[in-house]
Design a protein that fits this description.
Helices cover 44% and strands 22% of the residues. By secondary structure, the chain is of the alpha/beta class. Strand 9 and strand 10 form a beta hairpin. The structure holds adenosine-5'-triphosphate and magnesium ion.
C-alpha cells in the first residue's frame, strides 16, 4: 500500500521509522510521499533522504496516480475536508485523530512485545539456573553482597536448598565467613566489578558440603542498567582436577630429573666403591680380631656395604630397562616374597602371614620387579611395627573391574597426615638408615605395569598399602 503523508513533523518521522522497522504480515505499507509547508520539517528532510517524493503543497499528491492512502497529520479539518473533496474514489484518507488512535495502539502493542521479550529472557535465565547439566556454578549477587539467584551446581556443592541461600550474603554461603572476601589470596571479585564496571577474574578456594577443598576459577560480570551496576553474575569453574594434573606432571618431571641425576652419580660412584669394598674385605679377612684396627676395618666394610645398597637402590630407581613381562600368579610371587622376608620378621618379632585368594587369574607382569615391590612393602611394614605386631598380605580378584588386588596391612605406628603425600617421593624417609627410595621404586614399577598403589594409614593403629594390577591378557589357567 502506497502512502502519502501531509505534515512532516515528529509524527511523520515516527511513522516512517515504524514502517521501516516493522515487518507487516498482511499489507505491505510503503510511504512514497510527504508534504509540508515548512522546508525544515524533520519528516520532510528524512523522506527526502530516503528518496521519497517531497512537496510543500499537498495538491501535488492528486497528480500522482500510485497513491492509495493519504494520512493527514497536521490536525487541520480544512485540509482534511479539502482532500476528501479533491481525491479520486480509489484513494482513502485517514484523519489526524484516527492516526493518533492507531499510534497509541501501536505503542501499547510494542510495550506488550517488550514485556513478552522480558518474560522470555527471565524464562531463559530460570532455565539456565535450574539446568542440572551446567557444571559451572552460577550466582547472581546484588551490590550489597546478597544472593539473588543461584544455579543447581552451586546448591549441590553447598548442600543447601535454593530458599535457604537466596537473600543471604554470598560470603556466608560460599566461604562460611561473616565478612566479604579480601586480601591477595582471596580478593573479592564483586568489589572489583563494582569499582571498575568491568568483568573481573580470580581464583578462590571453596569447600564442599564435606569440607573438601576445591579450587575455583571465578569470572564476575556486571549487569548494567543506565550505566549503574544493578547486580553481578559470578560463574565459578572447578579447576581442582586441572591443578592436580599440573602438580602430577610437575612431580613426574621432578622424578625424571632426579632419576637422571641419580643414575649419573650412582654409576660414577659404583666402580670406586667396589674397589674400596674389595680392598677393605681383603684386609679384614687377613686380620685377626685382636688387631688394634680390626674394629675400624669392620666399620669400613659395613658402611661401604651400606653405601653399595644405596647405590643399588639409586640404580634401581633410575632403571631404564623395560620390564620383562610373563604370565604369573600373584599368589606365587607373594609366597616367594614371604620366604625371603620371614627371617627379618622373626628377627623383629613380627608375625608376617598371608591371606590369599583361592583362585586368581594370572597376570602379565615382571616377576622380579613385583617381588621387589612386595619385599619393599613387607620390609616397611616390619620396620614400622613394634615387636609383637603383625603384617598381613592379602590377595583377591575383582572381576567387575578385571583387576587383581593386593593389600599389605600392618599394626604398626602408622603415617602422620603431614607425611602421607610425601612417602612416594624419592629420598623421603623417616628412618635413620633409610634411603627413602623403596616406595618411589615401587610406585614406578606399579605405574609401569598399568596399576595403582595407594595408602591408608591411621597413626598409632597401622598402615595399609593397596595395589591394583590390571588383567591385560585373558587367562583361563588361574589357580
Ligand atoms: N608400613 C609403614 N608404616 C609406617 N610408615 C611407613 C610404612 N611404609 C612406609 N612408611 C614411611 O614412608 C617412608 C618412605 O618409605 P620408603 O620405603 O620409600 O623408604 P624407607 O623405608 O624410609 O627407606 P628404604 O629406601 O630403605 O626403603 C618411610 O621412611 C616411612 O616414614
Ligand atoms: Mg622402605
Amino acid at each position: 500500500m502506497k502512502i502519502a503523508i501531509i505534515g512532516g513533523g515528529e509524527g511523520c518521522l515516527n511513522l516512517i521509522d515504524l514502517i521501516e522497522r516493522h515487518t507487516f504480515k498482511e499489507i505491505k505499507p510503503e510511504i512514497v510521499a510527504v508534504a509540508d509547508i515548512k522546508k525544515d520539517a524533520p519528516g520532510l528532510i528524512r523522506a527526502k533522504k530516503s528518496g521519497m517524493f517531497v512537496t510543500h503543497d499537498y495538491n501535488d499528491f492528486f497528480e500522482k496516480d500510485n497513491i492509495e492512502l493519504i494520512i493527514e497529520l497536521t490536525g487541520s479539518m480544512d485540509i482534511y475536508n479539502d482532500i476528501l473533496a479533491k481525491k479520486n474514489n480509489k484513494v482513502r484518507v485517514i484523519a489526524h485523530t484516527t492516526a493518533m488512535l492507531f499510534w497509541e495502539i501501536s505503542d501499547i502493542l510494542s510495550i506488550q512485545e517488550e514485556t513478552k521479550q522480558k518474560l522470555q529472557e527471565t524464562e531463559a535465565l530460570y532455565l539456565a539456573m535450574s539446568d542440572e547439566m551446567i557444571q559451572e556454578e552460577m550466582v547472581i549477587i546484588s551490590p550489597d553482597y546478597r544472593i539473588l539467584d543461584v544455579n543447581v551446581a552451586l546448591l549441590k556443592r553447598v548442600g543447601m536448598s535454593r530458599e535457604k541461600v537466596i537473600g543471604r550474603h554470598c560470603y556466608e554461603v560460599t566461604h562460611n565467613h561473616d565478612h566479604p572476601c579480601k586480601g591477595d589470596l582471596h580478593p573479592c571479585p564483586l568489589r572489583e566489578v563494582l569499582k571498575t564496571h568491568k568483568p573481573s577474574q580470580t581464583t578462590h578456594i571453596h569447600r564442599d558440603k564435606d569440607n573438601k577443598k576445591l579450587h575455583h576459577s571465578i569470572s564476575c560480570y556486571p549487569l548494567l542498567r543506565n550505566g549503574e551496576v544493578i547486580s553481578v553474575i559470578e560463574i565459578a569453574k572447578d579447576i581442582t582436577k586441572d591443578l592436580q594434573l599440573q602438580e602430577t606432571l610437575l612431580q613426574q618431571e621432578k622424578m625424571v630429573s632426579i632419576g637422571r641425576l641419580s643414575a649419573g652419580v650412582a654409576h660414577e660412584v659404583n666402580n670406586p666403591l667396589t674397589t674400596v669394598l674389595t680392598s677393605a674385605m681383603l684386609i679384614h679377612e687377613d686380620m685377626s680380631a685382636d688387631n688394634p684396627i680390626y674394629e675400624e676395618i669392620t666399620t669400613i666394610v659395613n658402611e661401604t656395604l651400606r653405601c653399595r645398597k644405596i647405590v643399588k637402590s639409586l640404580l634401581d630407581f633410575a632403571r631404564q630397562n623395560r620390564p620383562t613381562m610373563a604370565l604369573n600368579n600373584l599368589n606365587t610371587i607373594v609366597k616367594e616374597s614371604l620366604v625371603l622376608t620371614k627371617k627379618q620378621g622373626s628377627f623383629h618379632d613380627i608375625s608376617v602371614r598371608s591371606d590369599l585368594a583361592d583362585s586368581l587369574p594370572r597376570i602379565d607382569v615382571d616377576k622380579v620387579q613385583i617381588q621387589q615391590v612386595l619385599i619393599n612393602l613387607i620390609m616397611n611394614a616390619i620396620e614400622s611395627t613394634p615387636p609383637g605386631g603383625e603384617a598381613v598380605i592379602s590377595t583377591r580378584y575383582t572381576p567387575d573391574i578385571d583387576v587383581v588386588e593386593l593389600t599389605v596391612q600392618d599394626t604398626g605406628k602408622g603415617i602422620g597426615p603431614e607425611h602421607l603425600d610425601k612417602i612416594f617421593e624419592p629420598f623421603f624417609t623417616t628412618r635413620e638408615n633409610g634411603t627413602g627410595l623403596g616406595l618411589a621404586i615401587a610406585h614406578g614399577i606399579i605405574k609401569e605395569h598399568g596399576g595403582t598403589i595407594t595408602v591408608k594409614s591411621e597413626p598409632g593403629r597401622g598402615t595399609c598399602f593397596f595395589l591394583q594390577l590390571p588383567i591385560t591378557i585373558k587367562d583361563n589357567h588361574g589357580n
